[in-house]
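Incident log, entry 3
Record: CBS domain-containing protein (139 residues)
Problem: checksum mismatch between cached and fresh output.
Input:
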Amino acid sequence: MKNTATVKDIMTTNVITLSSSDKLENAEKLFKKNNIRHIPIVDNGEIVGMLSYSDLLRLSFADLTNEEFEIDAFIYEMFTIKQIMAKNLTMVPPNTTIKKVAQMLVEKEFHALPIVKDEKLLGIVTSTDLSRYLVAQLN
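Fresh output:
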C-alpha cells in the first residue's frame, strides 16, 4: 500500500448536494434513490453542513419500511435541514493522504469528510470509499 496516496484518488466527485432551505422529505428521497448516506449542504457555493441518513432516521421511521408513514411528513414539517445537519465540519484538501483521512475518520468517529479547495466542494470521502481502496490494495 502506498503511504503517499491522496484522497483525491478515491473521493466521490459526483456529489449530490442540497441547500439548507430544501425540505427533509427531499433529502429522504435522495438518500433512498441514490443509495447514499451523506449529503453535503451547500448555500451560495459554500459548504455549510452535512446531513447524514442517520440524522434523518433519528427523526423518523424512514428506514423501517418502504411504505410512507404520515408521521414522517408531520415530523419533516417540524424540522429543517438547517436544524439537524452537522455544522462546524472538518474539511480536508484533496492532497491529504488517505492514511491521514482514515485516521481522522477513526479518531473523530466520522463516516464522511468533505474535500474542499479554496472553499469549494470538490467531493466527499466516506468510510465506504476507504474500504473500497483497501480491498483494491489487497487484491
